[in-house]
Specification:
By secondary structure, the protein is mainly alpha-helical. It has one domain: LemA-like domain (de novo design (two linked rop proteins), Up-down Bundle). 79% of the residues lie in helices and 0% in strands. Helix 1 packs antiparallel against helix 5, helix 2 runs antiparallel to helix 5 and helix 3 packs antiparallel against helix 4. The longest helix has 54 residues. The protein is rod-shaped.
């Protein structure tokens, strides 16, 4: 075997190793992009789960308020309608609908608390207070879920905008994601 055939074998092995490295690098980048995109979907579903948790508490709160006073009839009607609107927004899809419905619901909670303070003779039991604490805690969970969603978008965007993702992502249909402000105006 001559030095020429040894050189050809060395060049061939080197090309095979480098080519295999590029293929492996390509697959690792692709898998990272797919994982990141699935993480975004998970984070968005977590936001909706927290909204669902908040709205699942509404029937219990409505029952307690109804048992204490008839003066809250309009409030109960409005909050029930808001819950129905929220369910419609979820069915329609999108991001801003549930957030807008949640903001309107928060306005009614403020009205309700002000009304309760105006009638100090009406005593609410610990169940009502516990439900209000649950709703407040759920608001905190919603905020954290929104932050997690935008963080996932940020991570994904970094992956698609830096080397090697910037070379590979567009050819595979991985386009940068859009951040969501969550506080979009209703009109």
């Amino acid at each position: 075997m001559g030095s020429t055939s040894t050189a050809i074998i060395c060049v061939g092995l080197t090309a095979l190793i480098i080519g295999g490295g590029f293929v492996g690098f390509y697959f690792l980048t692709y898998n990272s992009l797919v994982t990141s995109r699935w993480d975004i979907d998970l984070k968005l579903n977590n936001v909706y789960t927290q909204y669902q948790r908040k709205y699942d508490l509404i029937p219990q709160l409505t029952e307690i308020v109804t048992s204490y006073t008839d003066q809250m009839t309009e409030w109960i009607t409005n909050i029930t309608a808001l819950r129905t609107d929220w369910l419609s927004e979820i069915a329609d899809g999108g991001v801003s609908g549930p957030a807008n419905a949640s903001d309107t619901l928060d306005q009614y909670f403020t009205l309700f608390i002000a009304t309760a303070e105006s009638y100090p003779g009406v005593e609410f039991d610990s169940l009502w207070l516990n439900l209000m604490n649950e709703i407040t805690g759920t608001e905190n969970r919603i905020t954290n879920a929104k932050l997690d969603y935008n963080a996932a978008i940020n991570t994904y965007n970094i992956m698609t905008s830096t080397i090697p993702g910037v070379w590979i992502a567009p050819s595979l249909g991985f386009l940068p994601g859009m951040f969501t402000s969550w506080d979009l105006p209703t009109s």
